[in-house]
TrEMBL record, chain A:
The lineage of its organism: Eukaryota, Metazoa, Spiralia, Gnathifera, Rotifera. SUPFAM superfamilies: CoA-transferase family III (CaiB/BaiF). It comes from Adineta ricciae. Belongs to the CoA-transferase III family. One of its GO terms (molecular function) is alpha-methylacyl-CoA racemase activity. Gene3D superfamilies: Crotonobetainyl-coa:carnitine coa-transferase, domain 1, formyl-coa transferase, domain 3. This is Alpha-methylacyl-CoA racemase.
TrEMBL record, chain B:
GO terms for biological process: bile acid metabolic process. PANTHER family: ALPHA-METHYLACYL-COA RACEMASE, SUCCINYL-COA--D-CITRAMALATE COA-TRANSFERASE. One of its GO terms (cellular component) is mitochondrion. Belongs to the CoA-transferase III family. Residues 333-353 are annotated as: Disordered. GO terms for molecular function: alpha-methylacyl-CoA racemase activity. InterPro entries: CoA-transferase_III, CoA-Trfase_fam_III, CoA-Trfase_III_dom3_sf, CoA-Trfase_III_dom_1_sf. This is Alpha-methylacyl-CoA racemase. It holds the Pfam family CoA_transf_3. It comes from Adineta ricciae (Rotifer).
Length: 387, 387
């Protein structure tokens, strides 16, 4: 397992933190999700929990805090999703936990960061994106900005960037023997992941003007966009380079030598392409462009992508145990040497592994029973002696 | 530096590979971009090269391949962007390089992966997205799918996922002492980063239907979308939870007790919100919502985000040396202990560090001069002895 031996504590919360935990778990880390008794609803809705274990602790009482601190004293990574100050109020701030475990990588994922004027404000992916500057770039021409679901801030600039940074901190820890605090703002993460949108602004062949949706890669060109087919599906065209554009024209039945068909004649060619693509089905276009190197591919529906020949060859979708009818994407990339855990591991119920986890860190059976009895710790299974 | 000591070779190419190299360089790794003499145009257009060094080698001749192999024999990471088979044809395939350096993490980033029916086809971000299933989910209702520039496949599922996987392989290498091959398909990476879009499909409060743009987070509701203001700017609304939605209504001057204003009355409330937001400027709305916890924030333009008070507090944008008028996002997250290199380091010219790099790996001055004279290696600077 690539990350075998890495011990991660994840405080349950929305999107970015569970996704970070999932990335680490998928690559072999041991991830424990720390649930709270008043949070069972969120635990049930967690769809990023495969392969994790769950302990449920009441963090509002000192004995629960004790249990947590004992857990974190031997962990490598902690990931917390709360608004700044919440961990401190619980008595679980970085000063305390790093003092007890100087190797801990204490990862704080928040919308706006641990300080700044927005620090206490609630928000979601779309709000973090709005402050970052990135949202102003996303969406079609002459339309209001449109966030790509919650990919940009929650997953890309959030969970995935956190996972990368955590591994970088773990790398440094080898030499320094020290952990540290990572302060990830989702707003900043999404901007940083999109750095090129900023650093490439001086390239006129990429950014035609300052308008959203009117540039090379955001729908401003007829040779980089999607088109509707006769059967209400779509083809995707990404024929930027002249040699691919030429093949594209050929596939569409247009004369490459006709000057009016050139890449600069954007407005007219958009209409032409729209009209031509509507004449055949997605399947027919796919067959035509299979034979050409024209950067023209079918837009596969999310639940049908698994059926495409290429995806079948690559075996990159998997049916999970729980939902036989729904495919899910497998982890990427492929590791030639590291074994990765099976992706169809079950998600834990809240508190499903509480007793087991406490035993691992040295609690006696009696002490565990007391903690459960006093509801400091919750267990979704009764200990054997109580049956 | 978080990644001090990590030696990375990056074969120059488009987007995902330079971005991966940039992430590693930004966190302190030593990244050498390997340019080719016939590729200088791409090197000049590379906007992800800050802090990297460049050696330029003619890889079409055996003596150039020799230089490359000497470089890779002491590297930790190699990242290559070519279509499957190109490295093998050059005599630089994983079998050869891993045989000479069993620690090497040989990272192959391609659109469709190293095998499968599409492996040899050209494409761009929009094509990889189309095959992944993700593109079918992106865009507004009743419109064709719309890719978010090249964020999803090139940067998120590409460069950033590669960086994370590389660090996971480096972690495992500590115990196994072995490198390996990472096969990253951008199509698969973008799907994997978006896993939640698949795994959450059974949640009716997130996915209302199977239609793009008609769900909770993709513009299907009035309380999670953007709205135009009187001055042609926009506000972003992300008020999912009832307590935030109530504050939103109050800020908009709508009675929270009026049943017709509830969250389920989507169609009518969309129109109402659109009409109300158009009555004030972005600045006025921002002031109103600064005082409320309503998940309502201004959509800052990409070049104006740096002026917002919160971003000023966080100091998360920087003017670069080369373009005083242009801002770039600073790396995220903040590391409390690791020092990161300055983000405004210059990008290298093609071959700017050829001589220096060859000296570091043990070439004599005479040998270096010979390689340059024979154009095996190109140098953007004349060696001192020739001046």
């Amino acid at each position: 397992m690539a990350l075998r031996g890495l011990k991660v504590l994840e405080l349950s919360g929305l999107a970015p933190v569970p996704f970070c935990g999932m990335l680490l778990a998928d690559f072999g880390a041991s991830v424990i999700r720390i649930d709270r008794p008043d949070d069972r609803q969120n635990a049930r809705l967690d769809r990023l929990a495969r392969g994790k274990r769950s302990i449920s602790i009441d963090l509002k009482v000192p004995k629960g805090i004790e249990v947590f601190r004992r857990l974190s004293s031997t962990a490598d990574v902690l990931i917390e999703p709360f608004r700044p100050g919440v961990m401190e109020k619980l008595g679980l701030g970085p000063d305390i936990l790093l003092n007890e475990n100087k190797g801990l990588v204490y990862t704080r994922v928040s919308g706006y960061g641990q300080d700044g004027s927005f620090v206490k404000k609630a928000g979601h992916d779309i709000n973090y994106l709005s402050i970052s500057g990135l949202l102003s770039m996303l969406g079609r021409s002459n339309q209001k900005p449109h966030a790509p679901i919650n990919l940009a801030a929650d997953f890309a600039g959030g969970g995935l960037l956190a996972a990368y940074a955590i591994m970088a901190a773990i790398f440094e820890r080898q030499t320094t023997k020290q952990g540290q605090v990572l302060d990830l703002s989702l707003a900043e993460g999404s901007a940083y992941v999109s750095s090129w949108m900023w650093t490439s602004r001086d390239l006129p062949m990429v950014w035609f003007g300052n308008q959203r949706g009117e540039n090379l890669l955001d729908g401003g060109a007829h040779f980089y966009d999607t088109y509707e087919t006769s059967d209400d599906l779509y083809m995707a065209v990404g024929a930027i380079e002249p040699q691919f554009y030429k093949q594209l024209l050929i596939g569409l039945g247009l004369d490459p030598n006709d000057e009016t068909h050139n890449q600069m004649n954007i407005h007219e060619m958009k209409k032409k392409f729209e009209e031509i693509f509507k004449r055949k089905t997605q399947k027919e276009w796919t067959e035509i462009f299979d034979k050409l190197d024209a950067c023209c591919t079918p837009v596969l529906n999310w639940d049908a992508a698994c059926k495409h020949e290429h995806n079948q060859d690559r075996k990159n979708f998997l049916f999970t145990n729980e939902k036989q009818e729904q495919p899910i994407p497998k982890p990427a990339p492929r590791f030639s040497a590291s074994k990765l855990p099976a992706i169809d591991r079950p998600a834990p119920n809240s508190g499903e592994h509480s007793a087991e986890i406490l035993r691992e860190i040295g609690y006696t059976t009696e002490h565990i029973e007391t903690l459960i009895k006093e509801n400091i710790v919750q267990s979704s299974q009764l200990p054997k002696s109580k049956i």
